[in-house]
Amino acid sequence: MERDDGPTLAKVEAVYRMESRRVLATLIRLLGDFDLAEEALHDAFMAASDRWPTEGLPGNPRSWLISAGRFKAIDRLRRRARFDASRDELARRIEEDMDQDPPEAHDIEDDRLRLIFTCCHPALPLDGQVALTLREVCGLTTEEIAHAFLTTPPTLAQRIVRAKAKIRDARIPYEVPGRDELPARLDPVLHVIYLVFNEGYSASSGDALTRHELSEEALRLGRLLVELLPDAEAIGLLALMLLHESRRAARNSPSGELVLLGDQDRSLWNGDQITEGLALSERALSSPSFGAYAIQAAIAATHMRARRAEATDWSRIIALYDLLLRAAPSPVVELNRAVAVAMRDGPEAGLALIDEILGRGDLADYHLAYSARADLARRLGRIDHARADYRKALALARQEPERRFLLRRLAELGDQGCRAE
Amino acid sequence: MKYLCLVYFEPQALSALSADDDAALTRESLAYDQELDRRGQLILAHALQPVSSATTVRVRNGKLSTFDGPFAETKEILGGFVLIEARDLNEAIRAASGIPLARLGSIEIRPIMDL
Fold first, then answer.
1. Which whole number is the average pLDDT over A104-131?
2. Residues near A107 by Cβ (< 8 Å), separated by ≥ 6?
3. pLDDT at A143 > cutoff 70
């Protein structure tokens, strides 16, 4: 029977949802096992739904849930101990640890970091890192994650099962890396977050160009990371994602067609996200330990600062690409630099650079390399070359809006394009 | 927990070293074994003779087959092993990354299964 002044079930759910991620992170540390912690969390929620409406909201819901979870876990283990003596041992150990003081606030924040670094451990396969992070850190369901990555729930569930098994079998510890190891261990975390963001920013295949919810999740993760660990690269990544996200409304035409950066209606850009992104970008770059993400954010920032595409400071962008090539050399970065060079010095200059990259054999399967070269050839009136490269790009492009864009370009050059693959 | 660190490298990479560099690598490797021992992490470590000295046996349906060479031809060959005691995988990774041949080849880290 609910008290008149007790919280409604909806309120209980709301409080639970706000605390569940933190509580899980701590329970994993206390219980030493992901599955056990998830069960305990669920049991704690059941207990809360049962008792808070009559007893009222506890003063510290987080501590209450952690305590309840621990007790329930011990109960479960004792019941299973009848069949497995090791569980009784585990239950006893958890009970002994309970005599210690309740977790301090900063311990809980450390637990969230422990969880992120464990889910993104480089010893786990990448798809397992992504699945585990979205499930345990973000609280998405297996179905939601599977849907977002265009796969089936059983496939996704398998990735999670395998990742948890690797954590258990190889004994990946639940800890935040030490200072010396932090830069190397931070990279996989940033990589996972950016991968999720990109998956949401431009779906890897299929019709819709963006999946908003995934990018939102990535932004949330990025913010959490910066809150817990204000490292220059974490700040740089958040800046980069915000600046990309700020252009979402302008990236598609109303009919869903791709609109290139230079052609976008800048009035559709999200001013708040740009303001925040620019500030974070400056903050990242002012730190001595800035790296590839901070530099990429600075490049995005340079684009965003221009009122009109024609006012873009290409020299600065080229200089930043030079810096990026030193921090994280890659043919894709070279390609993007070549495009910037073309904007400042003319198509011939950019074309020479792209020819060099493709001539080496790099980016042979990268549709954007061919479409970039085609664009430059087109500007120089070399229609045959442009057509040939647009066709190559079309054969390699996987997203429908990009394919339609390339077909349009080909049509403009008097070419009806390839037959659909 | 015990972890087996399997040391793989391309034979060419080793033979490309000068005599001095090769001797230095051997010294460093032995010194590192001693360091692991000092830390209480070393259980057993050995370099292996070249893969040309390998022999593979299989028994199928009670019949023994013996072959010359490793069980599989690989570009990077198994050149040695270090069996260590470590608290967890991160500690094992730290230990394995210090093995001098990690700079030239790859170290596979496998947790031991307690049967």
1. 88
2. A26
3. yes
pLDDT in tens, A363-415: 999 999 999 999 999 999 999 999 999 999 999 998 888 899 999 999 999 87
A328 found inside a domain:
no
Structure tokens at A370: 């061919």
C-alpha closest to that of B14 among B64, B80, B61, B112: B80
DSSP string spanning A173-213?
A: ---PPPTTTHHHHHHHHHHHHHHHHHHHHS-SSBS-S--HH
Between the alpha carbon of residue A395 and those of residues A117, A212, A367, A370, B76, the distances in Å are: 39, 27, 8, 10, 36
Between A345 and A4, the more confident residue is A345
Q: Is A337 part of any domain?
A: no
Assign residue A402 the CATH number of its domain.
1.25.40
Please classify residue A372 by burial: count the beta carbons closer than 10 Å to its beta carbon, then call 0-12 exposed, 13-18 middle and 19+ buried.
buried
**DSSP class of B72:** S
Percentage of chain A lying above the pLDDT 90 cut: 67
Query: Which residue of chain B comes nearest to A177, CA vs CA?
Result: B90
pLDDT at residue A205 tops 60 = no
**How close is the nearest chain A Cα to the Cα of B63, in Å?**
35
Count how many pairs of residues, chain A against chain B, have C-beta atoms within 8 Å.
21
pLDDT higher than threshold 50 for residue A421: no
Chain B contacts of A169, Cβ < 8 Å? 111
Q: Please say whether the beta carbons of A129 and A121 come within 8 A.
A: yes
Last residue of a domain, one of A38, A70, A103: A103
**Contact flag B90-A175 (C-beta cutoff 8 Å):** yes
| Amino acid sitting at position A251 | R
Domain endpoint, select from A103, A129, A158:
A103
Instruction: Let me know if residue A395 belongs to a domain.
Output: yes
The count of structural domains within chain A is 2
Whether residue A392 lies inside any domain: the answer is yes
Strand partners, B63: B60
A239 and A284 Cβ atoms separated by less than 8 Å: yes
CA A49/CA A10 separation, integer angstroms:
9
Set of chain A residues whose Cβ sits within 8 Å of the Cβ of B91: 173
Integer-rounded Cα Rg, in Å, for chain B is 16
Interface membership of B112 toward A (CB under 8 Å): no
First to last CA, chain A: 64
What value does the mean pLDDT take over residues B99-110? 97
In angstroms, rounded to a whole number, what is the distance separating the alpha carbons of residues A174 and A118?
Answer: 6
Containing domain of residue A386, as a range? 347-421
Max Cα-Cα span within chain A? 81
Instruction: Look up the pTM and report it.
Output: 0.86
Distance from the B22 Cα atom to the nearest Cα atom in chain A, whole angstroms: 29
